[in-house]
Design a protein that fits this description.
The protein is mainly alpha-helical. The protein contains nine helices and four strands, in the order αβααβαααααββα. It comes from Coptis chinensis. Residues 2-168 form the DSBA-like thioredoxin domain.
Length: 195
């Protein structure tokens, strides 16, 4: 997400950007109480998990951040409910919330399913009513699943980016592993070309 932010900042004078986050469950059956990240990664990727962690640490260092594999990972339904809720208060707030959630989860060992962390992130970016919204476990669930059905049909992995030209409705969907800002900038120039 940091590379996307850099690319947008460098192209802001040429385009009118609107970033929207859509939902995707990497592990829909993950437990709500969470599991230790390190253990989960080892179970999922085996010895390859050490190589993946080293690569992620290198990517984060390139942005001046420390990649943190401490803490828990698990069910992201509340996180997705909250991101959808934030979008109703403005896509700028939604984008700011996703950044806070990413920073907490990837660099501070925060658990993405922890209500306290989720509410704290919403307060930082000025989203109102999040605690009350999360108190009702049914609020936003239908909207989350409708969005998943609409947008995640052909996704095989993340991150997955869609670049749209709103002037003519053209759209390019591309799956890419952490593209650099230059790749994004090229996609902005010619959204129907591959990233």
């Amino acid at each position: 997400w940091q590379n996307l932010d850099k690319a947008i900042a460098s192209s802001n004078d040429q385009f009118d950007f609107e970033v929207r986050w859509h939902l995707y469950f990497l592990n829909p059956s993950a437990p709500k109480e969470g599991v230790v990240k390190k253990v989960h990664y080892m179970e999922k990727f085996g010895p390859q998990s050490e190589i993946i962690k080293a690569r992620m640490a290198e990517l984060f260092r390139g942005h001046g951040l420390d990649y943190d594999v401490d803490g828990l990972t698990g069910n992201t339904l509340d996180n997705h409910r909250l991101i959808t809720f934030a979008g109703h208060q403005g896509y700028d707030k939604q984008n700011a919330l996703v950044e806070e959630l990413h920073l907490g989860y990837f660099t501070q060992g925060k658990y993405i399913g922890d209500k306290e962390f989720l509410v704290e992130a919403t307060k930082k970016v000025g989203i109102e009513g999040a605690a009350e919204f999360l108190d009702n476990p049914n609020k936003g669930v239908q909207e989350v699943y409708a969005e998943l059905e609409k947008y995640s049909d052909h996704i095989t992995g993340i991150p997955y980016y869609v670049v749209c030209d709103s002037s003519d409705g053209s759209m390019e969907k591309k799956q890419a592993r952490w593209p650099n800002p230059e790749v994004f900038a090229r996609a902005f120039q010619q959204p129907t070309k591959s990233m």
